[in-house]
Amino acid sequence: MRLKTASKYIFSEMKNTVLIFYLIxxxxxxxxxxxxxxNDSSFNGIEMTSAIFLFIVGLNSFRKNYLFLMSNGVPRKTxxxxxxxxxxxxxxxxxxxxxxxxxVFNKIINYNTLxxxxxxxxxxxxxxxxxxxxxxxxxxxxxxxLGYFITLAYYRMNKIQKICVSIGVPVFFAxxxxxxxxxxxxxxxxxxxxxxxxxxxxxxxNYGPISAAGIFLVTTLLLSGLSYLLIRKAPVKEG
Length: 239
Prior knowledge:
The chain has one domain. It has 9 helices and 2 strands, in the order H-E-H-H-H-E-H-H-H-H-H. It is globular, with a radius of gyration of 20 Å. The two termini are 30 Å apart. Strands 1-2 form a two-stranded parallel ribbon. It is mostly helical.
């Protein structure tokens, strides 16, 4: 009963945020469709917008819920399960909504999906709807799980660790990594890495989006495992 009640509570919190998100998206699409001509108006990459949104939802899905549920006697393990029970209908529902948006708004404006742009030569098969659904669900689940893991990790860190991570990670990706690639990696190495990433995500292989969905799923499982290790002994921090 606790599991069902806790998952319903977390789902309710997410649902309200998702409704606001889609209200904004629909408003923007209608606005741009009205102020621009049919040939000039376009909307691209709803999947990435949704993934970023869910990542932010994940970042805000731990502390408040954790403290509230702990005060009501819900064990940590139950909270962990409840989060992912709530995530499944959210990510599946958003996938269905986005696919419906594609069918409807494509008649109004130039509405391009990220999935279609990446795998445009692999989207003509009879099972494409199912593959597209799996690709989107795994992408969204991975995004929200990443946000959940990061906020859990920050919750467990002390003040010095938070400062080091907050400064170190952006500096690494903005300065250190580009410096290494420019000064220590040849053009052939960079090209090899680029082609390797494209192959992993099925852009230039026969596996196509199924390969990417597999990577998203494995990443989600790894992040979930790490999140469980973090939450099982997480202290209650009121401040």
